[in-house]
Design a protein that fits this description.
The structure is a homotetramer of 280-residue chains.
Chain A (H helix, E strand, L loop, with lengths): L3 H31 L9 H27 L9 E2 L4 E2 L2 H25 L7 H20 L5 H26 L4 H25 L12 H51 L4 H11 L1
Antiparallel strand pairs in A: 1-2
Helix pairs in contact in A: 1-6, 1-7, 2-3, 3-4, 4-5, 5-6, 5-7, 6-7, 7-8
Chain lengths: 280, 280, 280, 280
Amino acid sequence: MANFGGHAIPGTFFLLYGFWLTVKHVLQHYWRTSQPKGRQVMPPFFKRMDYAEGGVKIFASFVGIMVEQFVVDGPHARLYDRENTSWVKLMNWQHSTMYLFFGISGMALIASTAVRAVPLGVDRLALSFALFIEGFLFMYHVHGRQPLDAHIHTLLLFAVFAGSAGTMLEVFIRNNLILELFRADMFILQGSWFYQIGVVLYPLTGDKWDLNQHDNMMFVTMCFAWHLALSLFLVSCTAFLVWFTTTRFSEKGRDIEIGMRIASSKTSSQKALLEESDEE
Amino acid sequence: MANFGGHAIPGTFFLLYGFWLTVKHVLQHYWRTSQPKGRQVMPPFFKRMDYAEGGVKIFASFVGIMVEQFVVDGPHARLYDRENTSWVKLMNWQHSTMYLFFGISGMALIASTAVRAVPLGVDRLALSFALFIEGFLFMYHVHGRQPLDAHIHTLLLFAVFAGSAGTMLEVFIRNNLILELFRADMFILQGSWFYQIGVVLYPLTGDKWDLNQHDNMMFVTMCFAWHLALSLFLVSCTAFLVWFTTTRFSEKGRDIEIGMRIASSKTSSQKALLEESDEE
Amino acid sequence: MANFGGHAIPGTFFLLYGFWLTVKHVLQHYWRTSQPKGRQVMPPFFKRMDYAEGGVKIFASFVGIMVEQFVVDGPHARLYDRENTSWVKLMNWQHSTMYLFFGISGMALIASTAVRAVPLGVDRLALSFALFIEGFLFMYHVHGRQPLDAHIHTLLLFAVFAGSAGTMLEVFIRNNLILELFRADMFILQGSWFYQIGVVLYPLTGDKWDLNQHDNMMFVTMCFAWHLALSLFLVSCTAFLVWFTTTRFSEKGRDIEIGMRIASSKTSSQKALLEESDEE
Amino acid sequence: MANFGGHAIPGTFFLLYGFWLTVKHVLQHYWRTSQPKGRQVMPPFFKRMDYAEGGVKIFASFVGIMVEQFVVDGPHARLYDRENTSWVKLMNWQHSTMYLFFGISGMALIASTAVRAVPLGVDRLALSFALFIEGFLFMYHVHGRQPLDAHIHTLLLFAVFAGSAGTMLEVFIRNNLILELFRADMFILQGSWFYQIGVVLYPLTGDKWDLNQHDNMMFVTMCFAWHLALSLFLVSCTAFLVWFTTTRFSEKGRDIEIGMRIASSKTSSQKALLEESDEE
């Protein structure tokens, strides 16, 4: 992974996952707030979204582990080299471990969606663990590197551990849109910061950054704040777009629904429905 | 900003903002506790206060960014100097970044006041982010300075991060007067501490402080506790004054209101209203 | 304070305060659980306890400040010595500052008991601040001392900050006996640890402890755990005694009450009352 | 304890305790969710489980303390050696202290099960204290050891303090299966990590690990993540097995129960019961 591509690929995945989470949770929130209090059973559409998300996570983690193990200079599933009495390619093994935990979080998502006996929040706990393990391994990873290299990875840890803490909170505080979008935002921030790490450590243009200059560290710190601002902007825009589109479509849908009901039976419930649509 | 004025100006802003928050939240609390449970819709007066607050924040942030960029020795919106291969005036860029996040918190306040679909608490989250970014940038700012300079800025971080944590809590615990006044208090503490930093690092009288003396650090630590006591005193007095004035005025107002109601229709609800005013 | 007595006096105060809190909160808890749900207004007896506690706190803090300032070798309210350009007796000033905050917490307790408009929890917030400031000043106090001296004060911080955090939680979680007894326990632990500090740093028997020996630090760490066990034992015994005594007395009282009621009017409510007393 | 067995014995205890907790809490959860809302009194079976758990804890702690004190090279209850002016076998005293707190948590469990006046959550608070003291003593234990030895014990602290924090949360959030299984998981993780420490520091095969090699530390960090994954797997499997078995058995039981009720009285409540069993 010690090249630009090795940072761009996970960055892209995290970015996409962040956007997916934004869309999913805004849709769920719209559904929650627009339903009358009586019918609170999630429609099967949301279940299918969760199955898809879990499946993609498991698949991507599996592919990630395979690639880390069986690339040309990978460990090929060998952990210890008895001849040289040394560990084989620990970096690849560490990345495999990170993928493993994201795979576990995918399994937890599918299990908690499919099986009613699995307590609510298990999926969030598993995701929180996955982020924690990612941060935990990165943390001990960073020792003894050059200052800027260490610093830029330390900044990544802010996004990772904040995401882990926020997701842990979601185990207890369910259906809170702010927490859900915070999670999405931390994934987007993480994704865009992976790109930034790639740009700084493996610049495409050839000009190498001085990894010991104090001004570079000051800039990178500030740059992290800009990435945060950018990620907030992206999440807000996406959420607005999804909300706007959904409201438009569902208003049309509801007009039709109401129309049909009026046609079939002019009951008193019709008034309540009209009032409901006025409120929004 | 490396002079007394550069610390007095933000200090004044933070002080004024702290007092504004105290007044606003005591008024809101009075309104919340004095309303009968039926009519819980915020009167438009409070909405207008929030619009004003958000507008001032956005405007002040914009002015702040412009000043930091286009003062005589500012970076003039240039970030990197290719000739000297060095960053241009990173300090001014960092301050601009801090202002940017306070501007964002102003936008979030206006958005969450104006648009019903924006979830409650987004304004607090944005303010918490603004304080976090302020503390985050200051934290990495401080490395390698002289002991007293580093220490006095570290103490500022207590006020900043405590404010950020308290504001984050408000995302989940709404309408809690203690948390709201805690936030106001942390802004006042921050403001008065900015003045203290100015006094210590750029004394107006000419006697320079010894930035390496251990006793000076001990004094400054204690002085921070005194500022906290002072800020608690100021918030309490302001809150008392606002509460006292409001109670006086609204009692008169209610007497008139009740009088009119009695005149127009002697209903049974009158008794309830009288009992209610007795209770307070 | 640099002698055994200077540690024994605050230690005694904290111990007594811890026991007082245990008694007070067990009584309040008994009252809360034994009342039928209808009458939830605190009896005036508890109000008087809080007034007394607040008054003693303010008085003791005032005396403490006076003593620290006007003992023979105290600063006599002089802060800065212009002749020697040095601060005067900062240690005494720091202790005065700590007392000041405990005085403030006393005022907050009286204010929140007497004035209904003061929001619930202000007294806990002020006490949490007092403990925080105590720990905060001790923390920066400790730098540059000999290892065992620094370590034994660092251990004190565990009790102080744990107490502060627990008391802060009580702002939000009211009437939770466990949190209330935790607070009492931390005060008792603090008090007994003050004695331990006195014994180690200013031994009465003359044998000085080696302040650099690693084994002494190991022992002191373990000793802190023993103090915790002791404080838990003391709080449990006190709580049990208070509960046992109260139950005994109030059962007698209630039998008489019920007896009188039966005599005056044999109503159906009598049965409910009897059932209630059976349940306990 | 400086040998493999000295790590395997506590490891085995923690592993067994983790599995016991998993079984106990899944059974309790099953019971909670399957009961109709009316009858919420815990059946005596669960009380007996808690008595047994508390009794075993007290007994095991007592035996542990005795062994630590009276093994051949133990301190034999002597704390200070006046002749050599040194502490006697502080390591054994520290382990005794840890056992003492687990014994206290056993007493708290029995007290809170047997006596109704003991507030709910006291058992969790005491267990949280026991874990905290374990971590607290280990923390100061580790100073000045060789890098790998220090690191492998530091990793243990993650499991210990996470367990302590989660158990503390349970004082406030009762009957949350996720928190309960988290606690069980942290005990299993701790237990298996004790084995790992034994394997690394006192290898059975003779090949000593190089305690200064950086790669060994990287491997051990990753290995901790694998132990976490393993513990999650073990808890999930155990929980699934217990749930599956219980559902099977209780379905049979309920069918019989329903059958008898139908036979004795064909009431309308029968329909409700059938619906209830359909739902699961």
